[in-house]
Amino acid sequence: MAIRALVFDVFGTVVDWRGGVAREARRLLGPSVDAAALADDWRRRYVPSMERVRSGELPWTPLDALHRSSLDDVLAAAGRPDVAPEVRDELTLAWHRLDPWPDVVPGLTRLARAHVLAPLSNGNVALIVDMAKRAGLPWDCVLGAEIVQHYKPDPEVYDAAPRLLALPPSSVLMVAAHVEDLTAARARGLRTAYVHRPDEFGGRAVPPETDPDADLSVRSFEELADRLGA
Amino acid sequence: MAIRALVFDVFGTVVDWRGGVAREARRLLGPSVDAAALADDWRRRYVPSMERVRSGELPWTPLDALHRSSLDDVLAAAGRPDVAPEVRDELTLAWHRLDPWPDVVPGLTRLARAHVLAPLSNGNVALIVDMAKRAGLPWDCVLGAEIVQHYKPDPEVYDAAPRLLALPPSSVLMVAAHVEDLTAARARGLRTAYVHRPDEFGGRAVPPETDPDADLSVRSFEELADRLGA
After folding, report:
1. What is the full DSSP assignment across A209-229?
2. What is the pLDDT of residues B143-202, one digit of tens each?
3. Which of A149, B109, B188, B193 could covalently link to B158 via disulfide, CB atoms 3.0 to 4.6 Å apart?
């Protein structure tokens, strides 16, 4: 594989959304809320909210706005209609403040020496930029949904990566912890690497250890760097 | 001024296009060519080539392709029809290999601590990414013409910066060595900082020392960092 650029799914693959959202929920809502359950419920509403954009029911809407809107439903379901609007706005920024898995910064730092690295996430640009600045993620540029106003797995998102990097799709490696993201990337000609993230869902729903259809399956970004000779 | 993000013109403002293009022309074409004159002629064809896209005469075309096409005219005018296509392709990459002015990396490094930094250039994403990796420019993301498929000074390019950074235009500072770029940014509500780059045209056409209409006029990115308290 002559890989020139790596593009990354972010939520679950690069960062621990469940732990980070729960931490911010505890900080802003206090100990009476089940913060991990709140994170799970918020995340459950993620795909359906994007589906409303993908189907055309909603015009293009950045993920921050989808998160803010679904948070109202999450808090209603959690019996917390009392939470003030400004606290809801602040809690929505939890998604900007997620911590990377421990192998991410060391792995990306090695990979950045000889490869172009970019997120290819459904997160909007401001979210991804805030997250990267806080966590020290060495992205070379920010690609993804908002740039093309389509959510994954729409083909437009995957196609934009080789187009904007001026590379053949076969020299771009999509890295994700989710098989369906890799399947969609592969359909557009990208190479694929699966990362096993057993803790994404708090250990309750453990994803498969490998993706037999991917070019590579690894357990960390450091192993990915090893495999690419970085 | 409560500035949260700085967006930068690149050619002439961040990097010395004339010196870099001449260096690559000398390397690839040998000493018989007047490398500085070649750089000047290539750059002269830059605005007219983008004008063909802005007017709708050409569909969206990334700057690399415009550069490659105008290079054929440059070499014809220079009496060098003999240059092989693969050398022309390689010479077009000169624009990916330009050196920053000496104050740029120290200034950006200070500014990056408390501000989001992004290029807002007519250069395509791959060009800007290659340049940044080679020169160590600490961009947080890459904005600019190719993202919105419009060339500056079209308003779409300026409007996309606050939109994608999720900031009010008045908290985004456009930095450029060219008054007309700042005028167009100001018309879209951005703040503006003028940088005096006396050597951009090899000292022959010296630009004004300040832009009286800009919020700030400085002589280096380090002075810009001083003025913003970075």
Report:
1. S--TTSSEEESSHHHHHHHTT
2. 999 999 999 999 999 999 999 999 999 999 999 999 999 999 999 999 999 999 999 999
3. B188
If DSSP codes are grouped into helix, strand and coil, which group holds residue A140?
A: coil
Which tens digits make up the pLDDT trace of A80-116? 999 999 999 999 999 999 999 999 999 999 999 999 9
Asked if A12 is an interface residue toward chain B (Cβ–Cβ < 8 A), one would say no
Residues B64-94: b if buried by 16+ CB within 10 A, e if exposed: bbbbbebbeebbeebeeeebeeeebeebbbb
Q: Which of A124, A126, A165 sits opposite B126 (nearest CB)?
A: A165
Query: CA–CA separation, B117 vs A10, rounded Å?
Result: 21
CATH of the domain at A23: 1.10.150.240
**Does B131 lie in the same domain as B121?**
yes
CATH number of the domain bearing residue B154: 3.40.50.1000
Q: A72, A96, A120: which is the final residue of a domain?
A: A96
- Structural domain range at position B169: 5-16+98-227
Residues B55 and B38 in one domain: yes
Q: Is B145 on the interface with A (CB under 8 A)?
A: no
B220 and B197, same structural domain? yes
Cβ–Cβ below 8 Å for B126 and A64: no
Separation in Å, CA of A117 to nearest CA in chain B: 10
Per-residue pLDDT of A111-168, as tens digits, reads: 999 999 999 999 999 999 999 999 999 999 999 999 999 999 999 999 999 999 999 9
What one-letter code names the amino acid at B118?
A: A
Based on the domain organization, do A200 and A145 belong to the same domain? yes
Give the number of domains in chain A: 2
- Between chains, do B141 and A129 touch, taking CB under 8 Å as contact? yes
pLDDT tens for each residue of B38-65: 999 999 999 999 999 999 999 999 999 9
In the prediction, which pLDDT does A32 show? 87
CB contact under 8 A, A129 and B146: no
Could you say which of B96, B113, B128 is where a domain stops? B96
Interface contact B129-A116, CB threshold 8 A: yes
Residues B206 and B126 grouped into a single domain: yes
CA-nearest of B93, B72, B100 to B13 is: B100
Do residues B89 and B120 both lie within one domain? no
pLDDT value, residue A205: 86
- Looking at the fold, whether A115 and A84 belong to one and the same domain comes out as no
pLDDT at A204: 82
Q: Residue B135's closest CA among B10, B222, B50, B26?
A: B10
Choose the closest CB to A147 out of B132, B140, B147: B147
Whether residues A50 and A140 fall in one domain: no
Residue A203's pLDDT is what?
81
- Measured over the CA atoms of residue B172, residue B173, residue B176 and residue B182, the dihedral's sign is positive
- Which among B116, B132, B164 has the least Cβ separation from residue A140? B132
